[in-house]
From TrEMBL:
Gene designation: RWDD4
Name of this chain's protein: RWD domain-containing protein 4 isoform X1
Source organism, top-level taxon: Eukaryota
Family annotation (InterPro entries): RWD_dom, RWDD4, UBQ-conjugating_enzyme/RWD
Domain RWD: 9-111
Native organism: Trichechus manatus latirostris
Length: 188
């Protein structure tokens, strides 16, 4: 069987296995994400697996660079990726995306035992504080007012009173005229 046929069969299997699973996401026909752990779990992480053209004869590309993983230290990420690479070598030549996701699910606690959440708010504020000094006072521009043409200004002036406000009821429906056209059932 060719690599493309193997990929098509695995894609079909993945779609049927993970149908309705909120943790699984197909980014493209050759790229998939799976969230290991529940939403809100501090030890949850996201694995992305992308197939190469010759997959499964060659290893897939496994990544943990998703924003979801920003609280996981790079050492823990490297450890997880190394353990997944060992599983890849064992399964080379066979469809392994499902196997890798399940392996990560089964070993989540062991993978995350050295995990101490990085406070993402401090890292984000550090990034912001580093970037803000680069913005000089010249970049603080005043908000531009909407530019109107003379015709637009004239039309607006005709609609408004001397204070620039629209008169009360300017967009009301003429109720009496409307009722007289539709005919009231009370008259009958």
């Amino acid at each position: 069987m060719s690599a493309n046929e193997d990929q098509e069969m695995e894609l079909e299997a993945l779609r049927s296995i993970y149908e309705g699973d909120e943790s699984f996401r197909e980014l493209s026909p050759v790229s998939f994400q799976y969230r290991i752990g529940e939403n809100g779990d501090p030890k949850a992480f996201l694995i992305e697996i992308s197939w190469t053209e010759t997959y499964p004869q060659t290893p897939p590309i496994i990544s943990m660079n998703a924003f979801f993983n920003n609280t996981i230290s790079s050492a823990v990420k490297q450890s997880i990726l190394a353990k997944l690479q060992e599983a890849v070598e064992v399964n080379l030549g066979t469809a392994m995306t499902y196997t890798l996701f399940e392996y990560a699910k089964d070993n989540k606690e062991r993978f995350m035992e050295n995990h101490h959440p990085i406070n993402s708010t401090t890292s984000i504020s550090n990034i912001i504080s580093v970037e803000t000094p680069n913005i000089g006072p010249s970049s603080k521009k005043k908000d531009k007012k909407e530019q109107l043409s003379k015709a637009q200004k004239r039309k607006l002036a005709d609609k408004t009173d001397h204070k620039g406000e629209l008169p009360r009821g300017w967009n009301w429906v003429d109720v009496v005229k409307h009722l007289s056209k539709t005919g009231s059932k009370d008259d009958e």
